[in-house]
Protein: Alpha/beta-hydrolase
Organism: Laccaria amethystina LaAM-08-1
Amino acid sequence: MPFVDLHSQDDFASIFYTTNTTFNNVSAFDPERPTIIVLHPLFLDSTWLDNQFGDPRLSGHYNVIAFDMRTCGRSRCRSSGRHDSWVDSADLAFCCQKLHLPPCHILAFESLSINCALRFAILFPEMCLTLTLCNVPPPSELNWISTTLKELMQTWCFAEDLETCELAGMESVNFLFGPECDSELRDELIAFWQMTIPPRERPRFAETVGVLMNRSPMDPEMYASITQPTLLVHVRRF
């Protein structure tokens, strides 16, 4: 199975990954091609990266690999109050080491992934060739966003019936993707959340939100240490 198991004395994570090879492994990567690591958007996972994996401009010229972060998708981990974006960046580095990946280009979508990518470039510059960051978040979360996220998390995690759960899902879609979100996409998102982070998985969901909201801003010196070529992209849809 495409998992990388990371162990330490007081921590464990099993990180799921997928690739653009026929049998979904890294041994089939073309050594003559550069490698791109794709990091998925907030509250989603690598299954939502079909547009990137299906783009011939990427899959036809690059080795492409995507990881589910430790509290997302099919990845699993031991809950920890010390989990932050620095831990996510270390997870990524350990996965690269265990899979023997060469220095990679990073394509990151939205807040958690971008926070991970920036810290990865700082801590492990020898592993990172370039950064492409889509929808860059502020250094720390705005107060109104934090308040709204807390309210949505409370409503979703402690929904007492299906109607309340679906209402929380609709409010979450409006907040994250805008009120103009396509109805089919909205239904698909809510169904995905109900399957992957239902109310019984509230510790997993709360840990993800905690990593997002409790992050500390990086110092100017940290940003200055990022010397890799960086492209900033602001888009409405992926």
